[in-house]
Amino acid sequence: MSVKAFELVPVLGQDLLIGDKTWISVDCIECCGKNLYVGTSDCCIYHFKLEEKASASGRLAYTPTKQLHKYLGVKKAVNELKAASALNRLLVLCDNIVILMDMISLEPVPSGAKIKGITAFVVNENPVTGDPFCIELCAISMKRKTVQIYTVHEDRVQLIKEISTPEQPVDMAVDGYFLCLAMSTQYIILSYNTGTSQDLFPYNSEDKRPIVKRIGREEFLLAGPSALGMFVTAAGISQRAPVHWSENVIGAAVCFPYVVALDEEFVTVHSMLDQQQKQTIPFRDGHILQDFEGKLILATSKEVYFLVPLPLERQIQDLLTSQRVEEALLLTRGARRNIPKEKFQGMYRRILQQAGFIQFGQLQFLEAKELFRNGQLDVRELMSLYPLLLPSTSTFIRSHPPLHEYADLNQLMQGDQEKITKCKRFLMSYLNEIRSTEVANGYKEDIDTALLKLYAEANHDSLLDLLVSENSCLLVDSIPWLEKHKKYFALGLLYHYNGQHEAALQLWVKIVEGQLQDTTRSDLFEYIVDFLSFCSNHELVWKYADWALQKNEEVGVQIFTRRPLDENQTNMNPDDIVNYLHKYKKAVVMYLEHLIFDRNIQKEKYHTHLAVLYLDKVLELHPQSGSISEELISARRSLKNLLQQSNLYRVHLLLGKIKDTDLYMECAILHGKLEEHEKALEILVHKLKDFQAAEDYCLWNSDGKDSTCRQRLFHMLLALYLQPGVTSDALAMAGVDLLNNYAVEFDAVRVLQQVPDNWSIQLLSPFLSRAIRGSFHSKCTAELTSGLARSENLNYKYAKVKSRGNIITLSDKKVCQICQGFFTEPVFVRYPDGRLAHIQCATKYQSLPATDQNFASRRNQS
């Protein structure tokens, strides 16, 4: 696709250059600074001074002033001109001779230095001599197959080297030690330092004029086959893709990032970045195209022109204006080498931002997001497109010059609501991604407030996530926006985050009571209770606790049961809470259960209070008729569990309330707590007639106690079953089952003394077999224990005898291992490890200081 990269500007017209001498033609050109030199076919050199001026529109114009001209007197065309400004010399090739002339006077140097027998020459722009007061010149000699290397000084020329070539060179370019030569049939790379050469590709010089141009360090541009401009390095490889130009190219030059080619009718401009032809300029009868210090010069036989590159910034802006984003970015990245680093970075960021807005306008959101990020876009530039999105307190002003031409989103999308919705979804995603990154630094309030507005408008679930996390939403903008969109629960969250807890609760209570309509949470009442249970403002908790308990006692009591355990209980004392909840029957029961079962508080008043409440509930539900409700069963189960598990309630108080009722099971449990087991078992066996309950009573009452306690309870129960004068068949069978099921819990001898004489052996066979097995097991265990004890005692005795059999030497040089004092009398204590101590020291210390080994247990055992 086309782009205007160059403008053709006339420099020298025919009237100023040759006048009416129409037979004269321009054969070569050289430009150095403001100096323009023209070599003509009539052996003349013209020197002009150029003045550059820019019009108000930025268009360049050149005014040439003729300084002088010089006739060389040989009636041959001037073939080549090259200025060496450091030496103030002009190198002129005419009649196969290179002459050194003064740049200003155009007079030959007094020494008459010249090089003869030359068909073409080039100056080495990357010299290897390192001498700043000379230049290196490479010349094609008229001698067959020879290239000569010279150093040219102010007044002399010195031949350095001659290099033989496979064929006679036609044209060449040089960089450092490397020569790129166009032979008559092929191109080659030759190093005159090592003498090595490498063939590149063939061509026919008779059919086509060769082109060899140095375009950079160790890189050349050649006219290749199939109308290709080939890039070749000194290593003989191509690191760039070729450009495709016309078949009749007669000249080429490089002005990065473009290759400019000249044919008989046009000048074509090709990009080195994407190899596409970017511009075509009509130019008939051109035969010279050269670059001088970044300037491109075109010439016909009568006129001279400059091909002026337009500023890259302007080219890029033109591409962006025509929405050719990829080409603009490619050109920008390619221009990096020609622009100072700091300037490039600023320009590149701006271009990325502009490209991002173009992609955004085309709904290419992924591409736009990447460009915005890489361009470090001030996100407020994007937010400003959305009406009313920026906070009212924002002082943001759009970039100048503007990054885009859109007034707002409505103009950009021409009122298309579907597209506007897509743009809003994109902004939500983008803001959410960057809000926790460095991009948001300094703009956190703007970003979070904008996100709140977008979420509320779109009824997006992320609104709540934003408000319950760390955020910087501005109240002055957020409150009316949330009210407008009826997001009252979210508004409460915003109040809560900003420390206005009472305002949040007032709003939520109105929603629960139906004064405000907001269906965000169907469980808002439970949420309020949960909020109050963790609220550290106790005054607020007490204020709203009544409302919650009146609404639902079972849920409302969680305000107190779910409070943090490490909370300061000054204003949340359990005693105060119990007194407060007294008017709420369900709530006070649930709170006491929480204290006793969850927090395991061991206080008699709580246990007694809960037991009384349980009992009152049972008595209230106790039927006058025979029907029993599920609620009563549940209430009696709770009472029974508490009576069995707790040992802290006032038993006599409960017995006084229960004694005149038929709550036999509960009464039995209470007697058991008073160690009145016979009464308890009698109630269970004779009044309740629940033999399984009696057995369970024996088990749970002896749980955690020694085996004799359990044995005593089971013998009591058996005695009740076999009580003379009371025993029935049912009781007898219960006694048999008790013996057979719990044989190990009984003393077999006592049982045999208790059972009636008329019971058969077969009836008691399960009991007897288990009793015998248990007795035998106990006997074996006792014998084993006794044997082990005897063995251990024998080991200790052996160790004691062995220790007494050793010789003990005591002298006045021995010291006590405890006090480090000398022995003054033959009285001592010897430890099992052989150390000695005073008797008085040994009675004070149980271990030696050096080892901390305790010998008290050993002494006791021995």
Automatic annotation (TrEMBL):
Positions annotated as CHCR repeat: 562-726
Occurrences of domain CNH (ranges): 23-296
Keyword tRNA processing: no
GO (cellular component) term, any one: membrane
InterPro entries documented for this protein: Clathrin_H-chain/VPS_repeat, CNH_dom, Vam6/VPS39/TRAP1, VPS39/TGF_beta_rcpt-assoc_1, VPS39/TGFA1_Znf, WD40_repeat_dom_sf
Subcellular location: Cytoplasm
Annotated GO biological process: autophagy; endosomal vesicle fusion; intracellular protein transport
Superkingdom field: Eukaryota
Database matches in Pfam families: CNH (PF00780), Vps39_1 (PF10366), zf-Vps39_C (PF10367)
Major subcellular site: cytoplasm
Keywords carried by this UniProt record: Cytoplasm, Protein transport, Transport
PROSITE patterns: CHCR, CNH
PANTHER family: CNH DOMAIN CONTAINING, TRANSFORMING GROWTH FACTOR-BETA RECEPTOR-ASSOCIATED PROTEIN 1
Record protein name field: CNH domain-containing protein
Organism: Chiloscyllium punctatum (Brownbanded bambooshark)
